[in-house]
Design a protein that fits this description.
The protein is of the alpha+beta class. The chain is 16% helix and 44% strand. The chain has an 18-stranded mixed sheet that branches. The longest helix has 13 residues. The radius of gyration is 18 Å and the shape is globular. The chain binds the ligand N[C@@H](CCC[C@H](N)C(=O)O)C(=O)O. The ligand N[C@@H](CCC[C@H](N)C(=O)O)C(=O)O binds next to helix 2 and helix 4. The site of the ligand N[C@@H](CCC[C@H](N)C(=O)O)C(=O)O has 17 residues, from helix 2 and helix 4. Belongs to the diaminopimelate epimerase family. One of its GO terms (cellular component) is cytosol.
Length: 278
């Protein structure tokens, strides 16, 4: 199988193009190929498939073999992939996702090189049962969650996939590995959850570290950065546009007041191409 190793701020993917549909063994392949010791090594396995609603469809399997509804960093990588290979002719493309519908992407290209990718990530979902969180409310803001004898305050947001945003004194030094796995599988989240630990530095800058559902600690999470910005606005902590600093670098996120859509801007990079026996 031919593949391209790509990343968005160090959130890395094995990108596969050419299949007509998601292979039935995609979960097993994701587990095997994403393994960093016995496989290629990645946070996820991404398929670029034909779409009737957009230019292409993206499906993403986490490294544990579970399928995610959406992935912000992967959608930037997919967009760069199809542009670089001449599979689309415009710098404006549409990528279909299974959890967040069709997403409009704008590539900033300089001398044929994709510099940044801006994705219209759509409207955030705030209603508890739709996120889903086992709290029947129009929004789930600054609620209590208890794990292993410790209480946290959290805000839940779906960007097509579920997120739990928790503000801590210092996200950079916070013990992600101690609390991420416990909160990921907390019974409040029936489909598990991506957990973001955030520290607001100013009204336009937030530090964030992520424990991803199905992948563990990753260097960046695009949907997590969007959820963090939405949460920060709802809790009165930031303006509607902010830089979200992740371990792998920065994303610019804006929650547009006029259309209620969240816009994410960041890079996408190719590491190498290869062939693997499956
Ligand atoms: N890294 C991603 C999100 C990938 C999916 C996530 N682990 C989930 O299961 O929802 C991003 O950049 O958004």
């Amino acid at each position: 199988m031919e593949f391209t190793k790509m990343h968005g701020l160090g959130n890395d993917f094995i990108v596969v193009y050419g299949e007509q549909e998601l292979p039935a063994n995609a979960p097993e392949l994701a587990i095997a190929l994403c393994n960093r010791f016995f496989g290629i090594g990645a946070d996820g396995l991404v398929y670029i498939l034909p779409s009737e609603r957009g230019d292409y469809m993206m499906r993403i399997m986490n490294s544990d073999g579970s399928e995610a509804e959406q992935c912000g960093n992967a959608i930037r990588c997919v967009s760069k992939y199809v542009y670089d290979r001449g599979l689309v002719s415009s710098e404006q493309i549409v990528i279909e996702t299974i959890g967040a519908g069709e997403q409009k992407v704008t590539l900033k290209v300089n001398d044929g090189v994709v510099e940044t990718v801006t994705v219209d990530m759509g409207e955030p979902v705030l209603a508890g049962l739709q996120i889903p969180v086992a709290i029947d409310a129009e929004s789930v803001l600054d609620q209590t969650i208890e794990a292993d004898g410790r209480e946290f305050r959290f805000t839940a947001v779906s960007m097509g996939n579920p997120h739990c945003v928790i503000y801590v004194d210092d996200a950079v030094t916070f013990d992600l590995a101690a609390w991420g796995p416990k909160l990921e599988v907390h019974p409040l989240f029936p489909r598990k959850v991506n957990v973001e630990f955030a520290t607001v530095r100013s009204r336009s800058h937030v530090d964030m570290r992520v424990w991803e559902r199905g992948a563990g600690p990753t260097l960046a999470c695009g949907t997590g950065a969007c959820a963090t910005l939405v949460s920060s606005v709802l809790n009165g902590l930031t303006d509607r546009a902010a830089k979200i600093s992740l371990k792998g670098g920065d994303l610019e996120i804006e929650w547009n007041e006029a259309d209620n859509h969240v816009y994410m801007t960041g890079p996408a990079e190719v590491v190498y191409t290869g062939t693997v026996s499956i």
